[in-house]
Amino acid sequence: MRIGLVGVGRIGAFHAATLRALDGVEQVVVTDADTPRAQVVAKELGLEAVADVETLLGSGLDGIAICAPTSAHAELIARAQDAGLITFCEKPVASDLSGTRLIAARVADGKVPVHIGFQRRFDAGFRAAREAVTSGSLGWIHTIRANTSDAAPPHASYIPTSGGFFRDCSIHDFDAVRFVTGHEVVSVYAVGENRGEAFFAESGDFDSAAAVLTLDDGTIALISGSRYNARGYDVRLEALGSKDSVCVGMDDRLPLRSVEAGVAFPSGTPYASFMERFRQAYVDEMVAFTELVAGRIETPCSVQDGLRAFLIAEACALSRRDGRPVRMDELGT
Ligand SMILES: NC(=O)c1ccc[n+]([C@@H]2O[C@H](COP(=O)([O-])OP(=O)(O)OC[C@H]3O[C@@H](n4cnc5c(N)ncnc54)[C@H](O)[C@@H]3O)[C@@H](O)[C@H]2O)c1
Q: What is the model's pTM?
């Protein structure tokens, strides 16, 4: 198959390399608003580069992967739908709720499937946690704790088009809570603070945040995250139950240092970035996308899933702004 890819930045170049290496992918054709960048990446990875999205869409593709900044996702998904191309799009679906809802309506007939890139759904640990929770082996879940913290902030120019901390970063945890528990969020209370560089506040964003979510079965989920976790890239999810408890991300590379005497764990080199932590999940995600293109599976993460996670992010942004709990039904469906 011939796969197109838009935006060869941090994640796009990695997905392009993964796709190129997959059996069944004959060619990956890339484009980027920064044309020289597309040409350099194409040369490095043995891909084809074209000048713009228009040319890409008309180049005889079987599917398309959208890895451009979040602010460009909605328009690009719509154009791919018009071209009848099965699409992978990085999270989130769009940078605002109206754009996300427009895309949800646009793809509702399911004729041209779209796969949204929440790679935790392909991570072995998150899958095992889902199995543990949904099988009932943990009993009833009293608390979920989920955290996503970057070792260092993304480049400053990423922030204005990112949608902000909840929509860009915590959204992974919001989707993971839904994925692992199979339950929906009914209310949120969120806070966010700015103690790092000025460019966050200048975009109306913040660098560290937390939220309390209540799920429809009464489970409490505590979400936290920061752009400044210098010890390493820290992604964890704990599912604490009435019978047993499990933790995703508690391996030897966990970026935490015990202050207890005689405790050597964890002893490995902490994860530096999402690329190190989720390398295999990203590969499995691209394999699933090509399976979707081949018509062998249904989308593993739909735009509806993207909308549900985005609504939680939106509720958290509203809660932080107004300093009050927000019920999900305030936002509609
Ligand atoms: N799933 C994950 O773990 C994960 C990790 C990182 C980023 N992302 C998502 O991937 C997307 C890209 O993030 P990134 O960190 O790679 O950003 P980036 O800034 O490193 O790269 C974006 C690239 O897109 C290009 N570009 C900008 N506007 C474009 C347009 N309209 N058309 C074509 N190309 C355009 C830029 O020149 C750049 O090369 C974001 O939506 C982000 O949320 C997901």
A: 0.97
